[in-house]
Write a structure and sequence with these properties.
The chain is an alpha+beta fold and 166 residues long. Helix content is 33%, strand content 33%. It has two domains: 56 residues; 105 residues, Immunoglobulin-like (Sandwich). It contains two helices and eleven strands.
Length: 166
């Protein structure tokens, strides 16, 4: 008959349990770090797109006799826009805010605008939803590799208030 000492088993079981716990903690830490690195990478990629957008895409509404070339009618906004940046702009979004609500047109100038190019626009909107116009936003949009939709370049948007009647 073989006599097994309980004293000899206890250190062996303790060593095995210690190894299992250390490997488990290592796996959890590795998973957390890997997830954080992936999240940071996506944030950096999105931020670099925003930086590119704000430095390369610039627009302005030219002036004539010290007045911006933008005016409003009862259900439309008429404006001239110039691409003063160094990159092609794919589209623009127009948002019209009024005392009753807002309206937006997501795709104006769908042919795009080359650097230095000027384009005159007449954009209609649903007047009953807006009421009296208080503010207009013009936001450039660009196609980004890897994205299915065009992204809004909100850093380069133009904001106009107190717009004159046409």
């Amino acid at each position: 008959m073989v006599i097994v000492s309980k004293r000899g088993m206890s250190p062996l079981i303790a060593a095995v349990l210690l190894i299992v716990v250390v490997v488990g903690i290592g796996a959890v830490v590795t998973g957390i770090v890997r997830n954080q690195i992936t999240t940071d990478k996506q944030t950096i990629e999105r931020t670099s797109t925003d930086i590119e957008c704000s430095t390369l895409f610039q627009i302005e509404v030219p002036t004539y006799n010290d007045d911006f070339m933008i005016c409003k009618g009862s259900n439309y906004v008429n404006f001239t826009i110039e691409n003063t940046g160094s990159e092609f702009i794919d589209e623009f979004q127009l948002k019209v805010f009024g005392d009753s609500g807002f309206a937006q047109n997501d795709s104006i100038i769908t042919i795009g605008l080359d650097p230095g190019q000027v384009n005159a626009n007449y954009v209609a909107y649903y007047a009953p939803a807006v009421g009296a116009v208080q503010e207009v936003l013009i936001i450039p949009k660009k196609k980004v590799t890897g994205e299915t939709n065009k992204l809004f370049c909100t850093e380069a948007q133009l904001r106009f208030a107190d717009i004159e009647d046409c």
